[in-house]
Specification:
mainly alpha; three-stranded parallel sheet; 479 residues; uronate isomerase, domain 2, chain A; TIM Barrel; disordered N terminus; 19 helices
Length: 479
C-alpha cells in the first residue's frame, strides 16, 4: 500500500525531508541513502569562494537576519529585483542598514517566498533556517517577524559567531578571493592567532591588472608597482611585479590563481608587440582590439607562471559583467546583474595547452556557465590533457538538476577523477554547508543509479562519493 503525506493548505510548518534530492525510485533511493550517509558528516573543503577573511578575524556577531541571508547574496536579491523590488530596499549598497530597514528587507523576502519555489535558493535558505537556527515555521508575510526575532536572538549568542559556526560547519579549508595588491593582513593575523585552529587561504585574482581596456587599469598597475616594490614602467617590469605578488600569496598559503574574462582565448603575442601595447596602455592610447589581444596574451603568461610557481589556474569565463549599467553605477559589482554568454574553449585554449597542457604539476580547472560545452569541449579536453580538470557547476548552474546534467554529460567521457569537486562560490557564509550538502545528495543519487544499473559496485560508488567530497578538491586544488 502506498502512503501519502497530506499537505494542508496554508500549513506554516518548515520541514526538511531526510530524503530531499535523493532519487524517487525506491531501490535507487535506498542505495543513495547509504551513499549519502558515507559522506554526510565529512569535513567541508571549500577551494573557491568569496567570504571576507575579516569576518573570521574580527569574529563579531552577525548584525541581523537580513545582513546574514539577504543583502550579501545576489542569488536572493536578483529574483526579488526581477519581481519589482529595488535593490536599495534590500540593503544592497547601503552600508549597514538600520534595524527597521533590515526588518523590512527580511519581510520582503518572506512576503514573496513563492518566488523561490523550485530554486536552489529556497533549498539553501530552508536548510540554513532549520538546521543552523532551529526555525520551524515556513517564511511568509505572517511569520516574517517571528522568524526575524528568533534568528536575531540566536545571533546574539556566542555559539553563532563566525568562528563558532566555522567549527560547527566542519570546514577543513576555506579559500577566499583576493586582490593581488592586498597585504593579506587578515590572513596573516588569522595564521598568527594561537586561538584560531582553522585554515583560511587566499586566492590570487589578477583580472583587473590584465585588462588595459578596463577603467582604472593604469591606476591598478601603479598600485601593483608599489605593492611589489617593482618598477612597472615597462612590460618586463610589469611581468616581474605580477610574479612577485604571486610569490607573496604563496607565502601566505595560496594554492590557486583565479581568472574570469569574457573569453579564454590565449593567442600569443611577440614580446615586442606585447611591450608596445603595454606602453600604449600606460599612455592611454591602446585600442580596444589591442587591449583584448594583450589580455589574451597575459592569460597565456599566467599559465606559464603557474607552471613555474605551482599555483593552480582556474578559469571561469563567459559572463557579461555589469549587464545593467545603471545598477552597477548605483550599487556596484556583484549585485545580481552579471549574465552568462556563450563561450568556446577548444580553439581558444589550444595555444596554452600546446605549450603547457602536459607540463608536470600544472593544474588547469575549467568552469563554465554555458552547459552546452560540458560534453562537447570540456570533458574531451580533460579526457586527454593531464593538466585539465572540469570544474563542477557553479553560479547559475549550481542547482540540483544542472549538477545531474553535468555528471551525465561529463562522466562518460572524462570519468569522476577529471572533475574538481564541489565549489560553493559564495559570499553568504551560512549557506556554505547547505550548498555542499546539496551536492553530496545529488552525487549520491547519480552514483546510486550507476549501482542500480550494475555499472558500479556499491563499494566503488561509496569510494567515489568520498573522493568527490574530499579527494578531488584536495588533489585538484593542491590543498
Amino acid at each position: 500500500m502506498v502512503h501519502y503525506t497530506r499537505v494542508v493548505a496554508g500549513d506554516s510548518t518548515l520541514r526538511l525531508d531526510p530524503d530531499r534530492l535523493l532519487p524517487a525510485e525506491p531501490g535507487e533511493r535506498a542505495i543513495a541513502r547509504r551513499l549519502y550517509e558515507t559522506v554526510r558528516e565529512l569535513p567541508l573543503v571549500s577551494p573557491h569562494g568569496h567570504v571576507d577573511p575579516r569576518l573570521l578575524l574580527d569574529d563579531q556577531p552577525f548584525p541581523d537576519p537580513a545582513a546574514l541571508f539577504v543583502t550579501p547574496d545576489h542569488y536572493v536579491t536578483r529574483l526579488l529585483h526581477a519581481d519589482g523590488v529595488g535593490l536599495d530596499a534590500l540593503g544592497v549598497g547601503q552600508g549597514r542598514p538600520s534595524e527597521p530597514a533590515s526588518r523590512r528587507a527580511w519581510r520582503t523576502v518572506c512576503e514573496r517566498w513563492e518566488l523561490f519555489r523550485g530554486t536552489p535558493v529556497r533549498y539553501w535558505l530552508e536548510s540554513e533556517l532549520a538546521e543552523i537556527f532551529g526555525v520551524t515555521t515556513r517564511p511568509s508575510a505572517r511569520t516574517a517577524d517571528a522568524i526575524y526575532d528568533h534568528v536575531g536572538k540566536r545571533l546574539a549568542q556566542d555559539a553563532y559567531r563566525p568562528r563558532a559556526l566555522f567549527e560547527r560547519f566542519g570546514i577543513a579549508v576555506l579559500a577566499t578571493t583576493d586582490d593581488p595588491c592586498s597585504d593579506l593582513a587578515a590572513h596573516a593575523a588569522l595564521r598568527a592567532d594561537p586561538t584560531w585552529p582553522g585554515r583560511v587561504i587566499p586566492t590570487f585574482r589578477p583580472d583587473r591588472y590584465l585588462e588595459p581596456g578596463a577603467p582604472g587599469w593604469r591606476d591598478a598597475v601603479a598600485a601593483l608597482a608599489e605593492a611589489a616594490d617593482t618598477d612597472t614602467g615597462d612590460f618586463p617590469g610589469y611581468v616581474r611585479a605580477l610574479e612577485q605578488r604571486r610569490r607573496y600569496f604563496i607565502a601566505h598559503g595560496a594554492t590557486s590563481a583565479d581568472h574570469s574574462h569574457a573569453d579564454v582565448r590565449t593567442d600569443p603575442l611577440a614580446a615586442s608587440e606585447a611591450a608596445r601595447i603595454y606602453r600604449a596602455g600606460l599612455a592611454g592610447d591602446a585600442t580596444a582590439a589591442e587591449a583584448i589581444a594583450f589580455r589574451r596574451h597575459m592569460l597565456l603568461e599566467m599559465a606559464r607562471m603557474s607552471c613555474e610557481d605551482g599555483l593552480v589556474m582556474t578559469l571561469h569565463p563567459g559572463v557579461r559583467r555589469h549587464h545593467h549599467r545603471p545598477s552597477f553605477e548605483r550599487f556596484g559589482a556583484d549585485t545580481g546583474h552579471d549574465i552568462p554568454i556563450g563561450i568556446e574553449f577548444t580553439d581558444a585554449l589550444r595555444p596554452l595547452l600546446e605549450r603547457f597542457g602536459t607540463h608536470p604539476g600544472f593544474h588547469l580547472v575549467l568552469f563554465t556557465a554555458d552547459e552546452t560545452v560540458w560534453s562537447r569541449e570540456l570533458a574531451p579536453l580533460a579526457g586527454f590533457y593531464p593538466s585539465v580538470y572540469v570544474g563542477v557547476p557553479w553560479w547559475f548552474l549550481d542547482a540540483p538538476d544542472a549538477i545531474r546534467r553535468f555528471r551525465a554529460a561529463v562522466t562518460e567521457i572524462a570519468g569522476f577523477s577529471r572533475t574538481s569537486g564541489f565549489v560553493d562560490d559564495t559570499r553568504a557564509f551560512c549557506s556554505i554547508p547547505a550548498r555542499h550538502d546539496m551536492a553530496r545528495r545529488v552525487d549520491a543519487g547519480f552514483l546510486a543509479r550507476l549501482v542500480s544499473e550494475h555499472r558500479l559496485d556499491e563499494h566503488e560508488a561509496a569510494e567515489t562519493a568520498v573522493d568527490l567530497v574530499s579527494g578531488r578538491p584536495t588533489t585538484v586544488f593542491k590543498l
